[in-house]
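Deviation from plan, reported transparently: fe (ii) ion complex.
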Amino acid sequence: MVVLGIWDGHDAGAALIADGRLLAAVNEERLTRRKLEIHFPEHSIRCCLSLAKLSPADVAVVAACTGDIAKTLARRFPGLKERYYRIRRRKAAPGYLSQIQKSAKYWIPEWGPTPASRALSVIALQRGLRRAGLSSARATLLNHHDCHATAAAWASGFPSCAVVTIDGVGDGLSSTISSYANGRLTRIAQSAARDSLGIFFEHVTNLLNMRELEDEGKVMALADYANPVADDLNPLLPFFTVRDGRVTSKIAGHAMLPHLRSILWRYPSEQFAYMAQRTVEDVAARLAEDALRLTAFPRIALAGGVLSNIKANRRIALLPNVEGVYVFPHMGDGGLALGAALAAAWANGEVVDRNFGGDLGLGPDYSDCQIADSLKRGALSAERAHDLPSQVADLLTRNQIVFWFQGRMEYGPRALGCRSVLARPDNTELRDRLNRVLKQRVWYQPFCPSMLASDAGQILEDHAGRSNASMTMAFAVASRFREALAGVTSIDGICRPHIVSDNAPGAFGDLLRAVKARRGLGVVLNTSFNIHGEPLVCTPDQAIEIYRRTEADALAIGPFLITRY
Ligand SMILES: [Fe+2]
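Because the crystal trials were delayed, the predicted structure below was used instead.
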């Protein structure tokens, strides 16, 4: 059976499962080149079918999610969605109606789905499916949080666990707790959309003049530079209470902005960020504690946009009595297409293989011939490297910045060794150069390391054998390694490592082993291969174009190594 999952909202995308195997998953932004694309994922659908070598007629079921009133209006009037997208991404100035639109944007999603909104959503979706040649497939509309939860439970590999979802809003809810056992999810608690921790952090992001739904990680990073505020003096903590797996907010999400603004003016920005970050961590940890207690399982799987917050995840991982924490790598709405495909496959009695590969390489790849053709078009010589990992390790050791393009593109927000920018992890000047000439990130946002698991054991104070293959969790760097990791550690000594098995097959594992042979530690700075404001590169042409536009020293693309010197 072929099941196609789609998501047609913020960070739209598609995922395809055939005969119990996840074959492809990609997000629309990588194909349209508009970051966090919002439109119907027609390019992703075509891409998934092509990667699986299937045609639209082969698809039996198309699964989408979310049938609340706000989502249905967005499906019916895509122009409204586009206008908000352009204002949010600072591509268009807000007009005189924008304040009313903004208020509606937070107010309408607090109404849950109705039979009418769900029916109208299905009609709107079928229009897109017809355009994609999928009119013969059976369309099904699933619950937003069930899709987040299914993805987390499935990918965790746990036979049974508690599952917690926390996001902005979806189908009238902002968080859920479920128990997962025997391949079945059972919802046991939920929080209303009006009580949303995600909307709270969205407002905070916006008030700090950052882009909501995109820059929340910057708020978390800025918080590191604050003088800590004691919990009893933090005016944001009392906004929320958590009881029996349910979050309640003193003020509804749609009415929260003026209250937060009235607090912000009394504090420097970094202090405000700290207090908000502390609130997110606290509420998330208390919800996780409730989930463990209510399900009586010692393991927990997490998904939803709020759980992109690596420090909140760390708090959960350090809770007493928790034996295992898994965060779904594409935890935000960008991962809903995969969640929908999985939930629909389960509903049809399919058992889906849980071994989907650590590097999440579920997107397009390109043959050596295709890459060579791209290099020729870019007027670059297509000379094969004699030992690519060793040569790149040498370049990194000599303080060079290397663009790394290998294999299938990663699914999800992190670069995991398929489309990465690499550098030495100890050189802060190199880090600053990388920021200045390529990434144009804010100065307080740290880069991340990739490291071999055997090194993680000594570098990370609280490693305790935990894996972090998808960079979803923060760890403390032991003080004796702070210098060796100076370019990838935040001011509070925390890093977000990509931990790679010492026996990992493929070029990236070889590279880390070659770096270890030269420098004693198999660690590199690894950041996503894109330039400021653009999605991760997908094709060889895009990689070559960025190489030509920037000051990177080398491009390791497929079997070819291109250097400037
Ligand atoms: Fe969500």
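The pocket of fe (ii) ion is lined by residues 144, 148, 167, 170, 304-305, 333 (CB under 6 Å). We consider this an acceptable substitute for the interim report.
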